[in-house]
Amino acid sequence: MNDRKPLDLTAFLCIALLCSLWGGQQVLFKLSIQDIHPNMQIALRTSIGCVLLAAFMWHKGVSLALWRGPWRAGTLVGVLFALEWWMIGEGLRHTSASHVVVFLYTAPIFTALGLHVWRPDERLNWWQWCGVFICFSGIGLAFLGSPAPTPLNARMWLGDCLALGAGFLWATTTVIIRCSGLAGIAATQTTLYQLLGGALGIMLLCLLLGQTNIHWSPFLISSILGQGVVISFFSLLVWFWLLRHYLASRVSIFTFMAPLIGVGFSVWLLDEPLHSEFIWGALMVMAGVILVNLAPQTRRVNGA
Fold first, then answer.
1. How much is the pTM?
2. What is the mean predicted confidence (pLDDT) over 215-237?
3. 9, 31, 156, 298: which could join 95 in a potential S-S bond, CB 3.0 to 4.6 Å?
C-alpha cells in the first residue's frame, strides 16, 4: 500500500531549502577559488559527508558492509560520481557559476532518455519528446547564441561543456541505480557508495594533478565544514525523508528551482553578467525539464 501523500507546506519549504543549498553551492566554490581548487574543496566536503553518513547508518543499524551488496554497480556509480564532480570543479575554473548550475541540471533530460532505452515501462510519450526537443534547443541557443569566438569565450565553452558532461554523468548514475541491484538496497547505502567513491576518487585526482594547495582562512574553513555537514549530509537526509513521505514524482518536479536560485545567487553575490541568449536558453532548458517531468505517463496494457 502506497502511503505517500501529496505535497504540503512542509514539503514545499523543505524543497525550497534543498534547492537553495544545491543551487548556491557553485557560488561557494567560486567565492573561495583563490584559496583552494574547487576539486580539492569538493573532495574535503565529500569526505566529511561520507564520514557523517557512515556514522548515521551505524546509529540506525544500516549495514556498512558495502562489499556484501551489489558492489560492482556500487563501485561504478562511485567512479561516475567522482568524475561528475571533478568535471564540475574543472568547469567552475573556466565558466561562470550560473552556466554550471544550468547545464548541470540538464541531468533529468538525459535520465529520461536513458530510462527510455533501458526501462520499457518508462518510454517517453510525445509530450516528453517535446520537452526533450525544447531542452536541447535551449542548450544550443545558450552555446551558439554566444558572442563571436574569442579566447575567453572558448574557455567558457569548455567550462560549459564540462558542466553539461557532468549533467550527463549524473543522469548515467541515476539510470544505473534504477536498473541494477542498487535499486533494491537502502538509499543511504547507495549514497555511501557514491560519497566514498567521490571522496577517494577526487582526492586521488587532486594529488595526481597537483591541486592540493590550500590557503586556510576563517571563511574557507566555515565553508568546507558547512558544505560537508549541511549539503553533503543534512540535505541528503532531508531528500530521503521527502521521498519516503511524499509522492516522489511531485517532489522531483520542483527541483527545477535549483538552477533558478543558483543563477540568482551568481548574479547577486558574484556579479556575473547574463547575456540574453543564455537567459532564453536557460529558460528553455528548464521548461523542457518541467515538461518531461509533468507530462502524463503513457501506460501500455497487453502490449498496446
1. 0.90
2. 95
3. 156
